[in-house]
Amino acid sequence: MEIPTQYNPSETEDKWYKHWMEKEYFRSIPDEREPYTIVIPPPNVTGVLHMGHMLNNTIQDVLIRKARLEGKNACWVPGTDHASIATENKVIAKLRKEKGIRKSDLTREEFLEHAWAWKEEYGGIILEQLKRLGASCDWERTRFTMEEGLSKAVSKVFIDLYKKGRIYRGLRICNWDPDVQTVLSNEEVIFAEEASKLYHVRYRIEGTDDEWVTIATTRPETILGDTGIAVNPSDERYAHLKGKKAIVPMVERPVPIIFDRYVDMEFGTGCLKVTPAHDANDYEIGKRHHLETIDTFNADGTMSEAAQFFIGQDRFEVRKLMEKELQERGHLVKIEDYTNKVGRSERSKAVVEPRLMLQWWVKMDEFAKMALDAVKDGEVDFYPSHFFNMYNSWLQEDNIRDWCISRQLWWGHRIPAWYLGEEVFVAGTKEEALEQAKEKTGNSGLTLDDLKQDEDALDTWFSSWLWPISVFDGFENQEELKYYYPTNVLVTGWDIMFFWVARMIMAGYEWSEDLLGKGTKPKYPFKSTYFTGMVRDKFGLKMSKSLGNSPNALKLLDEYGADGVRYGMLSSAAAGNDIIFDAPPKDDSIEAKMKDPNFRRKAKEGKIKLEVEDESEKCNQGRKFSNKIWNGMRLVKSWDVVDEPIDESSILVNTLAAEWFENLMNLELEKLEKSYSQYRLSEGLNNLYNFIWGDFCSWYLEMVKPPYQKGIDRKSYEKTIYFFEKLMTVLHPFMPFITEEIWHYLKERNDGDDCVISQYPPYSDYDKNIISDFNSLKDIVAKIREQRTKNGLKKYEPLQLFIQESDSAKKLLSRKGLKETLLKTGVLSEINFTDSTPENGVAFISGTDTYFIIIEKQIDVAAELEKATSDLEYQKGFLEKINKKLGNAGFVNGAPEKVVAMERKKQSDATEKIKQLEELINRLKS
Hints:
alpha/beta, 7-stranded mixed beta sheet, 4-stranded antiparallel beta sheet
């Protein structure tokens, strides 16, 4: 079989992905095996592959591929989310651009036809792109949150909660997005500090000409809707105003001066303007004091007729006009620069406007407690665990708010509620609602035409919180749910901890027991939650399309191959920490400019594009790693195989090499398993990289490599192939394509003998002594190579090695095959013990022993003496620190016994090294 000189991912990846699909290796059907289940965080149906997706889905693929190799029934369920706001905006923009049609020109049914057509044309793009990454999902299980089965589940859950009294319709202050013109939940509003102005405005006391109260506001445009002035009842400055009224500027509306403990006496003037229609806290004050509510804004953020002034003009333009008008009328006292937190829509980035609206809500108090207890009691584990602090804070009783679930959108699950006048009937179908209406009213003559369905759709998250249940059609048929539920792990970003993670836990505890039977299964939807970090650029800004600081994911795949990109992402992704991805900026001057706070702020706000190259040194390192393994395979396959060893020395070296590597592999497999158990995949991959590149390719293969024009014995060759196979299986979850390709080059394979379904090797006991001895050998060889370089000696020029006689050195050399291995790897002609300094001997210390290589040239004694003296000073300083630590009774008595023993070992080694260096210095001086 001819092997290409270089590994070419573009020729490999599509081939193997098609092969895996044809063999249905990713398909999962319930059987007698242990299931291992992951449900994908469904990307928006509008989405295309970006860096966050690549990180998140690579991690999921690593976990699912490992489970498959372990013989589990690995099931990774893919799918997409209908993404109400994002998708509706895309469809509206497309209709306007291509057909000149506005949403208002269409009926609901006509608009939805366009939306479904858009979904069919563009909705599957991101899933196809995930295949390029190597994602081994069961694609036959692909779900969509608005398909029929999942929609039925949403309707059932809404009806169930309504019957339980946990969904209600109420008039409350909501977060309104004037751009998209829909209500948002609290979690969809992102607050950030912004530069504002604080306007001090005076209101005249009714019945006086010269008595005023002054308020401070950042939103003078809302003055037109004021219906009260509030002061703290403990504030003596305003006690005399009890029972009096103030006149609202411009509209000349007399409003009561009320006394409420909510008012902060220290903020501004201690007087608070109350605008119940446009502030949540003002609304609560208004309810307590029976104040009028005046809505001065239209849905699009312009002023309504109720405002009386600036009707139809944009709220931010009106802010400027109000400043001018108040100034001219003598009401503006002063303006201050001010920094305050401004809420913006997560989707449109518009400044959110609080509005009093009749909406649908979920009561969250019981739900919050069950979600908090699930994690607090250890039923659901968080990785990293510190994310519980954030989760715990959000779910505290004082912080939790009822969930607004209605949205003024057409694309989404329409609320299953019908109206007959003021009466509301919640049902699965209009026919069921009609029967309810007839029964309640006693009017059997009612028809379907008498009922009108709620126009609103449900919040997207109201469907996705059911995802771990609904993807298995658990509300209709529990057969698969009984097998796959609960899932094993959820991999997601911490930024949707509240949107999604907490709510899925709530849904699991609320409905899984009803579906599966009490006590038959755990109620939680997933046992573990692994929170990934955010992918950021070199300046610490989150990579996003809007900032322009994210490389093109598909171009990275073209350049470095899927394995290279997977390596680049994972090797940078320490558990839970944000990932600094190393794509360089296109503009070299950006780095200097980013030191300017104003430039950085504008960049963060997306006002300056931070374009980056579609490059990454980390991904390039992954590509080089693939080539290193490829060349290792080519080396092995180039060897002639003979039935008998060529000499006794080869037997000893190859036997020791196999024994050492087998033990080391078990140690590395144990470490890797611990990394998996704690979801420290970056740590696991980096250790595996060092093990394969360093220990296998650079050491093991060099040890067993036959001399020039000689052959390797069959036993050693087969052992090498065995090791190579195991390494490819272990590496496969991280880098699936290169490992599958090499797997098939290593030896002839029967149909179905593929790396993707090979057997993951469990670790077993290992001999720490042989690993330690081999580490000593590696250090000796490294020091020999260092001396070769330093003294300008040829790489393959055989050298003599002398060892200062010692028990430790004799014990090391007594291990069978170690001397022969040292001769081969160190390129030595002979090894001898000595009790004196040999002539022309250049000394070095390895461990606690002194070694000499013989160099046929004048030795620079002064230089050697300087180096030995420097090493001695370092060792003395090191020993002083150790002695100080061991002289601390608190440390010795309080630290674990293992830690203290390690420090004592360091103390002993340092003492011995000092002795050796002092002897060496004396010899050099003589």
